[in-house]
Amino acid sequence: METQLSKEKKLIKARKRVEEIKGFYKHLTAYLVVNLFLTFVVYYFDVTIRIFEGLELSDQVSGSLLVRYPVWFIWGAILLVDAIRVFIFPRALGKGWQDRKIEEFMNEKNT
Prior knowledge:
The protein is mainly alpha-helical. The protein contains four helices and two strands.
Protein backbone atom coordinates (compact mmCIF):
# COMPACT_ATOMS: atom_id res chain seq x y z
CA MET A 1 0.00 0.00 0.00
CA GLU A 2 1.24 3.46 -0.84
CA THR A 3 2.11 5.80 1.95
CA GLN A 4 0.68 9.27 2.19
CA LEU A 5 4.13 10.71 1.41
CA SER A 6 4.48 8.78 -1.85
CA LYS A 7 0.97 9.84 -2.92
CA GLU A 8 1.89 13.45 -2.26
CA LYS A 9 5.09 13.07 -4.30
CA LYS A 10 3.12 11.60 -7.19
CA LEU A 11 0.62 14.45 -6.98
CA ILE A 12 3.42 17.03 -7.02
CA LYS A 13 5.07 15.35 -10.02
CA ALA A 14 1.73 15.15 -11.86
CA ARG A 15 1.08 18.85 -11.23
CA LYS A 16 4.56 19.77 -12.51
CA ARG A 17 3.97 17.68 -15.64
CA VAL A 18 0.61 19.35 -16.26
CA GLU A 19 2.27 22.77 -15.84
CA GLU A 20 4.94 21.83 -18.42
CA ILE A 21 2.29 20.76 -20.94
CA LYS A 22 0.20 23.84 -20.21
CA GLY A 23 3.28 26.02 -20.71
CA PHE A 24 3.92 24.41 -24.10
CA TYR A 25 0.36 25.10 -25.24
CA LYS A 26 0.68 28.74 -24.11
CA HIS A 27 3.91 28.95 -26.12
CA LEU A 28 2.17 27.44 -29.17
CA THR A 29 -0.76 29.86 -28.84
CA ALA A 30 1.56 32.87 -28.59
CA TYR A 31 3.51 31.61 -31.63
CA LEU A 32 0.37 31.34 -33.74
CA VAL A 33 -1.26 34.59 -32.60
CA VAL A 34 1.87 36.74 -32.99
CA ASN A 35 2.92 35.25 -36.33
CA LEU A 36 -0.57 35.37 -37.83
CA PHE A 37 -0.91 38.98 -36.69
CA LEU A 38 2.46 39.96 -38.17
CA THR A 39 1.66 38.17 -41.43
CA PHE A 40 -1.72 39.92 -41.60
CA VAL A 41 -0.14 43.34 -40.98
CA VAL A 42 2.51 42.77 -43.65
CA TYR A 43 0.02 41.73 -46.33
CA TYR A 44 -2.94 43.95 -45.43
CA PHE A 45 -0.99 47.17 -44.95
CA ASP A 46 1.72 46.35 -47.50
CA VAL A 47 4.58 47.11 -45.12
CA THR A 48 7.97 45.60 -44.57
CA ILE A 49 9.05 44.84 -41.01
CA ARG A 50 12.83 44.62 -40.67
CA ILE A 51 13.83 42.09 -38.02
CA PHE A 52 17.61 42.07 -38.51
CA GLU A 53 19.84 43.13 -41.35
CA GLY A 54 18.77 40.88 -44.21
CA LEU A 55 15.79 39.39 -42.34
CA GLU A 56 12.45 41.06 -42.81
CA LEU A 57 8.75 40.34 -42.97
CA SER A 58 7.64 41.34 -46.42
CA ASP A 59 5.06 40.47 -49.05
CA GLN A 60 7.69 40.82 -51.78
CA VAL A 61 8.32 37.69 -53.83
CA SER A 62 12.09 38.14 -53.93
CA GLY A 63 14.20 36.17 -51.48
CA SER A 64 13.71 32.81 -49.87
CA LEU A 65 10.93 32.00 -47.44
CA LEU A 66 13.42 32.09 -44.57
CA VAL A 67 14.34 35.66 -45.46
CA ARG A 68 10.71 36.72 -45.93
CA TYR A 69 9.29 34.94 -42.86
CA PRO A 70 12.14 34.64 -40.35
CA VAL A 71 9.92 34.82 -37.28
CA TRP A 72 7.88 31.80 -38.41
CA PHE A 73 11.00 29.70 -38.99
CA ILE A 74 13.23 30.80 -36.12
CA TRP A 75 10.50 30.79 -33.50
CA GLY A 76 9.12 27.58 -35.05
CA ALA A 77 12.47 25.86 -34.51
CA ILE A 78 12.47 26.97 -30.88
CA LEU A 79 8.89 25.73 -30.52
CA LEU A 80 9.88 22.38 -32.00
CA VAL A 81 12.68 22.01 -29.45
CA ASP A 82 10.19 22.87 -26.69
CA ALA A 83 7.73 20.25 -28.01
CA ILE A 84 10.46 17.60 -28.08
CA ARG A 85 11.47 18.53 -24.53
CA VAL A 86 7.90 18.38 -23.22
CA PHE A 87 6.46 15.41 -25.11
CA ILE A 88 9.30 13.17 -26.30
CA PHE A 89 12.01 13.60 -23.65
CA PRO A 90 10.15 15.03 -20.65
CA ARG A 91 12.60 13.57 -18.17
CA ALA A 92 15.82 14.35 -20.04
CA LEU A 93 17.54 17.18 -18.17
CA GLY A 94 14.72 19.07 -16.54
CA LYS A 95 13.76 19.44 -12.90
CA GLY A 96 12.78 15.76 -12.75
CA TRP A 97 16.30 14.78 -13.73
CA GLN A 98 17.68 16.90 -10.90
CA ASP A 99 15.30 15.31 -8.41
CA ARG A 100 16.26 11.79 -9.55
CA LYS A 101 19.97 12.59 -9.27
CA ILE A 102 19.52 13.99 -5.78
CA GLU A 103 17.65 10.84 -4.72
CA GLU A 104 20.35 8.69 -6.34
CA PHE A 105 23.13 10.46 -4.43
CA MET A 106 21.17 10.32 -1.20
CA ASN A 107 20.71 6.56 -1.62
CA GLU A 108 24.45 6.14 -2.24
CA LYS A 109 25.21 7.84 1.07
CA ASN A 110 22.92 5.42 2.91
CA THR A 111 24.65 2.30 1.59
